[in-house]
Amino acid sequence: MRTLVLNAGYEPLAVVTFRRALVLVLTGKASVVAEDDDPVVGPNEVLGRPSVILLHRYVKIPYRHDVTATRRGVLRRDNHLCAYCGKTATTIDHVYPRSRGGSDTWENLVACCLRCNNAKGDKTLASLGWSLRTVPLPPRGPLWQLRELEKPAPQWSEFLTEWAA
Question: Both ends of the chain: CA-CA distance in Å?
Answer without folding.
Answer: 26
